[in-house]
Amino acid sequence: MRSLHIAVTAAAVFTLAPATADACSCIGYDLSWHLNNSDTTFQAEVIVEGTIGMTNYYGVMVHEVYAGCIAEAGHYAVVSTSTSSASCGVDLDVGTTYVIAGTSTGSTWRGLPVLSTSLCGYNTQVSMLTAAEEDFLHSRYLSCPHLGIDMCTDGSPPYACFVDPCLAAPS
Fold first, then answer.
1. Which residues contact 123 (CB under 8 A, 6 or more apart)?
2. Sign of CA dihedral 57, 60, 64, 65
3. Residue 15, helix vs strand vs coil
């Protein structure tokens, strides 16, 4: 009887156990979703990287901002992520320029904003963007009154009207 109990238990464990265990799983949202659901979306070149504990930190130079008022074009920021891909950490390459959808950590490092990102975020090399994605990014309206920013992301002035001000602005 005891051997039957052990056999049934072992069969149940092996039958019900998952074949693989994935700690990081993400839903594949598109650029539009990430832009609308992140604190900031920006284009930046990775300048330096470092690790403290289980977190990778990347010093980045922000080239363009597409959404949010945390990162500023022409300024530096810090991007943090887990060191482990199992914890959704992402590897960024020094010298490479990315479009990053980041979330504010609410902290700063030496006066620089610290943003977090993950494998589930939008972290795409600029060279890999499609023409449609580039057009989308350059057709956004960006308003950061405390920074004196009120413009379309393509650099054109917005028009105050009832349509998307960046779509109505002349090229």
1. 90, 92, 98, 99, 100, 101, 117
2. positive
3. helix
Q: CA Rg, the chain, in Å?
A: 22
Q: How many CA atoms lie within 13 A of 81 on its CB side?
A: 24
**Strand bridging mode 76-82 / 97-109:** unpaired
Q: What is the pTM of this model?
A: 0.75
Rounded Cα distance, 138 and 155, in Å = 8
Q: For CA atoms 81, 83, 86, 87, give the dihedral sign.
A: negative
The C-alpha atoms of residue 40 and residue 150 are separated, in whole angstroms, by 16
User: What is the predicted pLDDT for the residue at 57?
Assistant: 97
DSSP-derived secondary structure for 33-94: HHHHHSSEEEEEEEEEEEEETTEEEEEEEEEEEEE-SSS-TTSEEEEEEES-GGGT-----T
Amino acid occupying residue 92? L
Beta strands 97-109 and 40-52, pairing class: antiparallel
Amino acid at 129: L
Q: Which tens digit of pLDDT belongs to each residue from 24-33? A: 888 878 888 8
